[in-house]
Specification:
The protein has about 700 residues and is mainly α. The protein folds into three domains: about 70-215, no CATH class; about 260-445, Orthogonal Bundle (Arp2/3 complex 21 kDa subunit ARPC3); about 450-670, Hypothetical protein af1432. About 60% of the residues lie in helices and about 5% in strands. It has 28 helices and ten strands. Strand 5 and strand 6 form a beta hairpin. The radius of gyration is 44 Å and the shape is elongated. It starts with a helix and ends with a helix. The model is unreliable at about 685-695 (pLDDT under 50).
Length: about 700
């Protein structure tokens, strides 16, 4: 078996393995619960046939109902206090000792009544409420003594303030001499009123948790065969509750081993379908990317990462609207292209919607916002573009979100503002794509429009070195860049990539600039002293030397492709023909006169190859008329086509014809005939006007 065939088989197996691994991960992430086969929205008609209950199932309370019931239980939950008997004994002993000196025969009855009243307060219980409890919300409390609890009306116990006020009023009402009352009040009654009921936070919390657990999740039953909803019937809130209850029961019934097996099988089919769609898109429209290992891994890793991002909301209980699932779609759009990003958006959204509670709304929102992102960032050349596009993404999200609320809920209430807040968080996280782009450029060798703008700056060290060492070559590169950029605009492609690649395609000439005619001055030509094969090698070497320089300056692989392909596998025809003419009978080693290549595979590299050859030869035309320029352009490009230079490139004959037309028009305008200025005739010296006036 040939190496080429083995390599092809390995590539196929490698891609199948990657796809199966991604499928396994996604299926593992999918919820292991049965999926309800009906899609419905509140406020919309039921689109299916009349639905009958397939089995008995309970009606589950809604989240709002459970929250309201939980809040009611928490509000009515009696706080638990522990009775401390030592407080009563200690405080009464202190109070008796403090009032003994007032126990005269006339005052003893009143003082004894005062002591008994304080004892009654402690018998009912004196407490101090913690900050977490509000007296207005408490109806009863539970007092625990010797592990026995009893419920007591909150009105029958005393707070510190209530006990002090009652004791103070009693002193004022007693039939005691005024001086005695004043002395008793000066004892500071607060010193004898201390809480004997101590709040037990742990027991209260435990009791509340137990009561919340006892809240029933259901209310009522639907019997087998009962009508749940009729065809075309409006989906009211009551119907939503019934349908959601049936949906919940489907999930519970899928928990058996046979149910899990069927569920997993269905999820595998769904995932493989989405991955197959994704793969077919690339195979038929971006075959070059499909067979490039780095780009293949990047795109399928982006697919997996997008689905992983979408699953976070389900497993971490995060609102799905806050997840920036367009993150990798935007990165693919900027680095690979809008078509690839669209494929990623459509395929991944099919799977991510599986995690969303309202899958129809979610997939509608993502596709709408994703299309805005793709076309808004088709060519990212300024940082402001990203933030403007994210703003329009946010507006799209908001518009679709509100539209669905109005159709499903019939109103937009204050609580829905939280959805807008989550969408804002989503778009805020999307702004992080800008710094992440650079990381992916470095790892996978992609090149963004922003990087291309930086590289096309003439102050880049590589271009400055070319300007100083080979100014003629730099001017040639500028002309090639102008021709190629205009042509690629006409036939479709990446104009900025084409221009930047053209600027760098000849940087290898800065090693030995004197060997190239555009840099020769004073009639000195070193080729006059060289054999034809040696001269050919000097010319050919500028490609390999250009690659070395590009790697030295850390230029991206996309730019290096222009350097290595701008001559393809063509020959240095001038020296090749000269050798054959001088030595017609001598064997010729054609490798000495042939560039190593490879031939261009992209439309952009092909156009630069054409522009390079046409611009170089056009300089040699003596009579630069439109007819001569037309013949030159047609001869050169037709020769390249005949030599098979564009066999591997994604460029059509129609594109090539358009490129020729652009080159002819531009070169004709550049070399247009100028009007000859008439010579200035010698005239008589002007007469002095003052003297003329005197005459």
């Amino acid at each position: 078996m040939s190496n080429k065939k083995q390599k092809k088989q390995f590539n196929i197996i490698f891609r199948i393995v990657i796809i199966l691994v991604i499928c396994s991960i996604i299926v593992f992430l999918f919820p292991k619960a049965g999926s309800f086969q009906y899609e419905f929205q509140k406020g919309m008609p039921w689109r299916y046939e009349t639905l009958y209950a397939p089995f008995d199932f309970p009606i589950y309370k809604t989240e709002a109902e459970l929250e309201a019931e939980s809040a009611k239980v928490a509000k009515e939950q009696p706080p638990i206090f522990n009775l401390n008997e030592n407080v009563k004994h200690t405080q009464l002993t202190k109070f008796i000792a403090a009032t003994d000196k007032y126990m005269t025969p006339g005052n003893s009855a009143a003082i004894e009544l005062l002591r008994k009243k304080l004892a009654v307060f402690y018998d009912y219980g004196i407490l101090q409420l913690p900050d977490a409890l509000e007296a207005g919300n408490i109806k009863t409390i539970k007092i625990v003594h010797n592990n026995i609890g009893r419920d007591v009306d909150f009105q029958n116990v005393y707070t510190l303030k209530k006990a002090y006020s009652a004791l103070n009023e009693l002193v004022q009402s007693l039939s005691l001499p005024k001086t005695v009352k004043e002395h008793i009040l000066s004892l500071n009654l607060n010193n004898y009123i201390q809480p004997n009921l101590e709040f037990d936070a742990s027991k209260t919390s435990l009791q509340l948790a137990n009561q919340l657990k006892n809240i029933s999740l259901t209310q009522g039953m639907v019997r087998n065969g009962e009508v749940i909803i009729a065809k075309r019937e409006l989906v009211t809130p009551e119907k939503v509750k019934l349908l959601n209850s049936l949906k919940t029961e489907y999930r519970h019934n899928a928990g058996s081993s046979s149910g899990n097996l069927r569920l997993t099988g269905g999820q595998i089919i769904l995932t493989l379908t989405a991955l197959t769609i994704f793969s077919i898109f690339f195979y038929y429209s971006k075959k070059r990317i499909f067979y490039n290992n780095k780009e293949f891994i990047f795109l399928y890793a982006s697919f997996l990462a997008t689905v992983l991002l979408g699953s976070v909301g389900y497993y971490q209980n995060i609102n799905m609207l806050s997840l920036p699932v367009l993150f990798f779609v935007i990165i693919v759009n900027i680095l690979v292209g809008s078509r690839s990003a669209l494929y990623l958006l459509l395929s991944s959204s099919l799977l991510i919607s599986y995690f969303a509670p309202n899958s129809y709304m979610y997939i509608f929102m993502q596709i709408a916002a994703g299309i805005v992102a793709i076309f808004g960032l088709a060519q990212l050349q300024r940082r402001g573009q990203l933030f403007i596009s994210i703003f329009f993404i946010f507006l799209t999200y908001v518009a679709v979100y509100i539209a669905f609320l109005l159709t499903q809920e019939g109103e937009f209430v204050l609580t829905h503002l939280f959805g807008l807040l989550w969408l804002f968080v989503n778009c805020l996280l999307l702004s992080l794509t800008y710094p992440v782009i650079y990381i992916f450029e470095r790892i996978f060798g992609f090149i963004s429009e922003i990087t291309l703008i930086e590289l096309s700056n003439p102050n880049h060290p590589a271009l400055r070195a070319l300007t100083k060492k080979a100014p003629g070559t730099f001017q040639h590169s500028l002309m090639v860049a102008n021709l190629a950029e205009e042509a690629i605009y006409r036939i479709g492609g990446n104009p900025l990539l084409t221009r930047t690649g053209a600027l760098y395609h000849d940087i290898g000439k800065s090693y030995d600039p004197i060997y190239f005619i555009e840099n020769q001055t004073g009639g000195i030509n070193p080729h006059d002293q060289c054999e034809f094969d040696v001269s050919a090698q000097h010319i050919i070497n500028h490609v390999t030397q250009g690659e070395e320089l590009a790697k030295k300056y850390n230029l991206p692989e996309a730019i290096i492709n222009f350097i290595r392909t701008h001559h393809g596998k063509s020959k240095v025809k001038y020296f090749y023909n000269s050798f054959k003419n001088k030595y017609p009978d001598k064997p010729i080693d054609e490798t000495l006169f042939t560039y190593a290549g490879p031939d261009p595979v992209s439309k952009e590299c092909s156009v630069v190859m054409m522009a390079d050859a046409v611009e170089a030869v056009s300089r040699t035309l003596r009579d630069k008329t439109e007819d001569n320029i037309t013949k030159l352009v047609n001869d050169i490009i037709d020769g390249q086509v005949a030599d098979g230079r564009f066999q591997n490139a994604d460029i059509t004959f129609k594109d090539i014809a358009a490129v020729k037309r652009v080159f002819i028009d531009m070169l004709t305008n550049i070399y247009h005939s100028r009007i000859a200025y008439p010579p200035l005739k010698k005239t008589e010296k002007p007469k002095d006007k003052n003297k003329e006036d005197e005459k």
